[in-house]
């Protein structure tokens, strides 16, 4: 046994651990979304990849053989797991790509029947063979010329190869359809395609070693040293490809929610300090989506309390002043503002003025009017509050230059 062979068990176990790593990292999300069928199937697929890789290590093979008392029984066990993994990949891809249509259901039933028969045939051929000498690393090549065992070895290689080829063809056609539609899905498909190409290399090396035995050549190292590397890598990449679309979309939504949560912080703090809508409803440490929902609700509740004090005419004049500033204001602002930025500054001006008016006379206030149209883009208002000097400058400029042009309170252009 050379040094390279000593590395193989570690490669199998390392790859098995990596296959389970996404499940541990996303355990909370998986439990929360346990009713989502796609995520359940992906989780099952990763668990099966773990079982295949963990069972294929020489130490695991020896343990299975000793536990059952049957020499080399680990061979059909590992081959069956690998065949079932191939079938699950096919089923997963068909269901994911075509949905549960009549044609897809027929194709899935065919896959189940064919690969179930393959697994049964593997055990029958093993029972008919005569594998007396235990082989932990080179069962494929050692028994490549033995009746029934030869057929068993070729059967699992062919079944695995066919599944890889069909999956790759399905992936290629699907990837062309979603190329400009869903970036995360396309990334997952490309990753899975790379994984199936890698596992085709695994099959090719196994087949080359077996054929080498048939022709009297010793190419065992292809099966015992090179193939495990490709097989382990391919299984991990395929599992990751199935997980990427869900995990990527979830990460994207988490990022967007976190970004909006942070951008609303200045507005939230201002309202929480001056117009609290009630005690915080946060309990423990909610996820970012729940926290964002609560923050948005508390902002909305505070704005509705402040609604009678909002000066819609002040908002309109502030917006006009920012979009078309006079020379003095233009020099003070130092740059041009986009329409959405101007809307945010105008909202901030109206909001700060309303807070001051409420503080001076809490019992006073105009007729209640919904603040939704005036402060429709609370994120832009919150961003403007990060520049209090700009808000104050615009407020002073508008307050010093009142306009008498009448306008409806809700005549505020959309940002």
From TrEMBL:
Residues 255-367 form the DUF6545 domain. NCBIfam families: MAB_1171c_fam. The chain crosses the membrane at residues 7-25, 37-57, 77-96, 108-128, 148-171, 183-205, 225-244. Signal peptide: none annotated. Keywords: Membrane, Transmembrane, Transmembrane helix. The lineage of its organism: Bacteria, Bacillati, Actinomycetota, Actinomycetes, Kitasatosporales. Pfam families: DUF6545. This is DUF6545 domain-containing protein. The keyword Mitochondrion does not apply.
């Amino acid at each position: 046994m050379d040094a390279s062979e000593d590395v193989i068990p570690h490669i199998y176990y390392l790859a098995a651990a990596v296959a389970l790593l996404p499940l541990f990292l996303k355990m909370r999300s998986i439990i929360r979304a346990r009713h989502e069928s796609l995520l359940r199937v992906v989780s099952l697929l990763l668990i099966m990849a773990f079982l295949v890789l963990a069972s294929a290590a020489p130490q695991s093979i020896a343990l299975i053989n000793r536990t059952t008392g049957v020499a080399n029984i680990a061979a059909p066990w590992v081959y069956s797991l690998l065949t079932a993994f191939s079938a699950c990949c096919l089923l997963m891809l068909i269901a994911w790509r075509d949905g549960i249509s009549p044609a897809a259901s027929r194709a899935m039933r065919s896959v189940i029947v064919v690969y179930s028969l393959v697994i049964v045939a593997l055990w029958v051929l093993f029972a008919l063979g005569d594998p007396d000498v235990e082989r932990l690393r080179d069962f494929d090549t050692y028994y490549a010329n033995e009746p029934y065992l030869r057929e068993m070895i070729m059967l699992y290689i062919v079944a695995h190869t066919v599944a890889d080829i069909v999956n790759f063809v399905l992936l290629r056609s699907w990837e062309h359809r979603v190329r400009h539609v869903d970036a995360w899905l396309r990334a997952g498909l490309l990753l899975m395609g790379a994984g199936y190409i890698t596992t085709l290399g695994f099959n090719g090396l196994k087949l080359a070693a077996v054929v080498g035995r048939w022709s009297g050549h010793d190419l065992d190292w292809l099966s015992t040293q090179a193939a495990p590397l490709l097989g382990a890598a391919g299984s991990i990449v395929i599992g990751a490809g199935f997980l990427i679309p869900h995990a990527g979309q979830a990460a994207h939504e988490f990022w967007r929610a976190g970004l909006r949560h942070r951008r609303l912080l200045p507005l939230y703090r201002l309202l929480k300090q001056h117009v609290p809508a009630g005690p915080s409803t946060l309990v423990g440490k909610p996820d970012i989506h729940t926290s964002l929902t609560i923050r948005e609700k508390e902002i909305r509740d505070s704005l509705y309390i402040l609604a009678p004090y909002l000066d819609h005419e002040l908002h309109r004049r502030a917006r006009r002043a920012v979009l078309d500033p006079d020379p003095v204001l233009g020099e003070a602002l130092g740059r041009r503002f986009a329409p959405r930025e101007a809307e945010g500054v105008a909202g901030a001006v109206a909001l700060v003025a309303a807070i001051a008016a409420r503080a001076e006379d809490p019992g006073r206030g105009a007729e209640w009017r919904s603040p939704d149209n005036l402060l429709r883009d609370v994120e832009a208002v919150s961003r403007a509050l990060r520049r209090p000097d700009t808000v104050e400058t615009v407020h002073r400029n508008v307050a010093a230059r009142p306009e008498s042009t009448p306008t409806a309170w809700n005549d505020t252009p959309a940002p």
